[in-house]
């Protein structure tokens, strides 16, 4: 990473906008990559409130930043302040990356790209297959959209009944229309349908916060649906092994945590800003 002596008047800035933001692994990941490739840039985390978001996005132009990453609670609100959206971002309705293209701010969502790349890294080919995903929030929507765009045959989405259930149904309908992939939203309380969906699937994904600290002893789904030939992917990476992954591994299933998704969504953003490939193996060696 850059020393004080290496920072000059030519050094470009990349940011991470979130609240909270200090916990993020992204600054180390990107600064390792800039240093390894000799790119004159630095990546810093900024805790940005909802009220400050419009001003801070304008700062990307004013300070001629390469761009920023966005996390909660800004992925949807930021849509109003960019000039253009990538095709996937339009479908998803949320962005996690902004690229400054000569003053024009373009919003992207690389979460789904990171998810698919992480599967490939673990020799899981879900294209042409059926998957079940638990959750219908922002991260889940990105994963569903990318899987549908890439050619997954069928997607079942499991979510608890809530005030947002109708909104989720509408979003899923929009993704279906944009991708021609059959997607079915099922209540987690409808156990017969949940079991049917998982039994038909070649991959089970948790895209909820269930199992994250401090609720590490919780499961997002009945453990009886798990089986040895069903790979289980959990987007959580803290803890590295959630209870869901422990239970699945005990049944003999292949298990994957969210570190790969974090790394590969970052690699996709890195390429958008720099037009260079992130040195993924180098970053893994030093970060994980």
UniProtKB/TrEMBL annotation:
EC supergroup of this enzyme: oxidoreductase
Binding site for shikimate: 24-26, 71, 96, 111, 237, 265
Residue ranges of domain SDH C-terminal in the record: 258-287
Active site: 75
Boundaries of every Shikimate dehydrogenase substrate binding N-terminal domain copy: 17-98
GO molecular function: NADP binding; quinate 3-dehydrogenase (NAD+) activity; shikimate 3-dehydrogenase (NAD+) activity; shikimate 3-dehydrogenase (NADP+) activity
UniProt pathway annotation: Metabolic intermediate biosynthesis; chorismate biosynthesis; chorismate from D-erythrose 4-phosphate and phosphoenolpyruvate: step 4/7; Aromatic compound metabolism; 3,4-dihydroxybenzoate biosynthesis; 3-dehydroquinate from D-quinate (NAD(+) route)
Catalytic activity field: shikimate + NADP(+) = 3-dehydroshikimate + NADPH + H(+); L-quinate + NAD(+) = 3-dehydroquinate + NADH + H(+); shikimate + NAD(+) = 3-dehydroshikimate + NADH + H(+)
Binding annotation for NADP(+): 135-139, 235, 258
Gene3D superfamilies: Leucine Dehydrogenase, chain A, domain 1, NAD(P)-binding Rossmann-like Domain
GO biological process: amino acid biosynthetic process; aromatic amino acid family biosynthetic process; chorismate biosynthetic process; shikimate metabolic process
Keywords noted in UniProt: Amino-acid biosynthesis, Aromatic amino acid biosynthesis, NADP, Oxidoreductase
Function field: Involved in the biosynthesis of the chorismate, which leads to the biosynthesis of aromatic amino acids. Catalyzes the reversible NADPH linked reduction of 3-dehydroshikimate (DHSA) to yield shikimate (SA).
Family: Belongs to the shikimate dehydrogenase family.
Name of the molecule in the record: Shikimate dehydrogenase (NADP(+))
């Amino acid at each position: 990473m850059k020393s004080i002596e290496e920072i000059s008047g030519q050094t470009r800035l990349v940011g991470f906008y979130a609240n909270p933001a200090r916990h993020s692994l992204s600054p180390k990941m990107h600064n390792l990559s800039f240093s390894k490739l000799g790119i004159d840039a630095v990546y810093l985390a900024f805790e940005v409130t909802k009220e400050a978001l419009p001003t801070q996005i304008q700062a990307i132009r004013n300070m001629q930043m390469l761009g920023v990453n966005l996390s909660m609670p800004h992925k949807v609100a930021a849509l109003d302040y960019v000039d253009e959206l990538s095709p996937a971002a339009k479908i998803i309705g949320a962005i996690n990356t902004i690229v400054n293209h000569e003053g024009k701010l373009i919003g992207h969502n690389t979460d789904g790209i990171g998810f698919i790349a992480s599967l490939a890294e673990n020799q899981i080919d879900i294209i042409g297959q059926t998957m079940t995903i638990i959750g219908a929030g922002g991260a889940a929507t990105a994963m569903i959209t990318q899987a549908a765009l890439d050619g997954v045959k069928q997607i079942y989405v499991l979510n608890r009944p809530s005030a947002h259930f109708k909104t989720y149904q509408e979003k899923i309908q929009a993704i279906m229309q944009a991708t021609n992939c059959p997607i079915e939203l099922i209540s987690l309380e409808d156990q017969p349908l949940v079991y049917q969906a998982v039994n038909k699937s070649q991959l089970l994904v948790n895209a909820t916060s269930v199992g994250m600290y401090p609720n590490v002893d919780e499961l997002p789904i009945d453990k009886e649906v798990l089986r040895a030939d069903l790979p289980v992917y959990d987007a959580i990476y803290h803890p590295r092994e959630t209870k869901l992954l422990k239970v699945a591994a005990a049944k003999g299933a292949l298990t994957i945590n969210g570190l790969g998704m974090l790394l590969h969504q970052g690699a996709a953003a890195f390429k958008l800003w720099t037009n260079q490939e992130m040195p993924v193996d180098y970053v893994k060696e030093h970060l994980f």
